[in-house]
Every structure is written in C-alpha cells, then in structure tokens.
Amino acid sequence: MSHPWRVVSCVLVWTSRLGMVLLAVAIAALAQESGGDCLFLIGSGFLCESGNSSACPAVAKSADGSTLELSGAGTFAPQSKLVTAAGTYTRKSASGDVLETGVWVASELVSFDSYGIAAGALMREGRALGPPQLGGKRLPMFSGPMAAGGLAVLRIRLIPVLGFARTATLQVNCALGKVPDEHQVEGMKLAFEGRGAEFDEEVSGRVLFLLMRPGATTAAKAPAPEVETNSTPTSAPQ
After folding, report:
1. Tens digits of per-residue pLDDT, 51-91?
2. Which of the listed residues 2, 71, 143, 238 has the most CB atoms within 10 Å of its CB?
3. SS3 annotation, 157-214
4. Distance separating alpha carbons of residues 170 and 152, to the nearest angstrom
5. What are the residue ranges spanned by the domains of the chain?
6. Which stretches of the chain are assigned E, i.e. beta strand?
7. Does the reported pTM lie above 0.85?
C-alpha cells in the first residue's frame, strides 16, 4: 500500500471510530432517557476501566488462527425485537497483521435468552448506576439499571474502510446469573453469512446487559379500592 493511501486509510479508521464512540454515548443516553428495555456493552464503555487489558475489545478466533476484535454498544427490546446498536471491528491474520477494519451496525435482534438478574455484579466493581441523586452522588444500582446475564443473537452489517459490506450473525454472551453449562465463557462469536469465516472461539472481552426497566413487565397493577355501597335504601326519619 502506498504511503498517501495508508494515511487516508488511517484517517478514515480513526474518524469512524470516533463516530462510533459518539454514537455509543448517544445510545446509552437515549436508553436512560427513554426507558428502553435493555442496554448492552461489548468490550466498551466503563467495562474498559477495570484495569484488565483483556476486557476491551472483545476478541474471537477462527479455526485458522485469525481473530476478530469488536467493540460496541446498543439497546434492544426482546418482545418487539427492535434493536439499535453499532461499534467498530478489526480482523487480523494469525500472525497479527490487520486484514480489515471498519464499523458495524445491527439490523435485527434474532433472539435473547436471559440468565436472570445479577444484582451485585456492578457493585463489586464499586459502581452505582442510575440518575444523579443527593448533590451529584448516585444511588446504588438497585434504583436504576440492573446488571443481568444472557445470550443475544444479532444480525449485523459490517462496513469496512476498504472493500464491500457484509452481513454476519453476532452472538453476545454475558455469563452472569443462572448461566447454562454450554455458555460459561463470556464474550462474543461471529459468523459471516454465505461462505465467510466463522469466529467461533471466545478469546477475551467483557460483555454486560443492563435492564433499564427491571420488573416493568412483571409488576402487577394495584387493584382499585372497593367502595362500600348500601343497596338497602334508608328510611326517612319520622
């Protein structure tokens, strides 16, 4: 690759990544404001602040040793299957050479299997979520979003800086709550549709689902108070 074209490619990559960071922030803010069902992070956001270098990005490996690194954020509603999500990705050869880099955008929520709420997950990291309270301090997460485990399957569109866009299935697993034996490893897997590569081994990366309206679908409405009535007419005083 010539030097000028390499410079142009680098500019495009960093511009795309900056755009995705801003979009991820906007998605998170939208979820907080609109009360969306679930916000999720894949190797991004505060997950990267744990001091663990393997937390971000999420990495998956294919049978030939090549890897796919992916970060992003989004929201989805399991009942309606509506999803808004985006991020960045980089595909590398087995020797570590960058083969492709670009952005991804979710087009469909295929399925979501919840493992249940893990109420202490964020508190163990010293974090509290929810709207600011009491002079800027935040109340514990129980007053706002709730950490939960689960397996989300998304259909996404990968748009490289150079080359043609492709469709893939992204599987995102958060190993919190009552995790099935076959999904004990946290991370992501990705398979390109058609005859594309399949990255079916989770290598590293943090994933988290945050229920924005915990209990909203199960809260029962309080019954209306009964009003006592006297069906027998009272006689007029004599």
Report:
1. 888 999 999 999 999 999 999 999 999 888 899 999 999 99
2. 71
3. EEEECCCCCEEEEEEEEECCCCCCHHHCCCEEEEEECCCCCEECEEEECCEEEEECCC
4. 8
5. 3-211
6. 38-42, 58-61, 67-77, 82-92, 98-117, 132-133, 137-138, 146-160, 166-174, 187-192, 198-199, 201-204, 207-211
7. no
In this structure, what token pair is assigned to residue 129?
């979520």
Q: How many CB atoms lie within 10 A of CB 84?
A: 18
Q: Which of 130, 174, 132 is nearest to 152 (CA)?
A: 174
Give, in order, the Cα–Cα distances in Å from 213 to each of 36, 156, 177. Answer: 7, 25, 17
- The secondary element (H helix, E strand) that includes residue 97 is none
Q: Dihedral of the CA atoms 71, 149, 62, 99 (nearest 10)? A: 0
CB 91 within 8 A of CB 100: yes
- CA-nearest of 94, 109, 105, 102 to 201 is 94
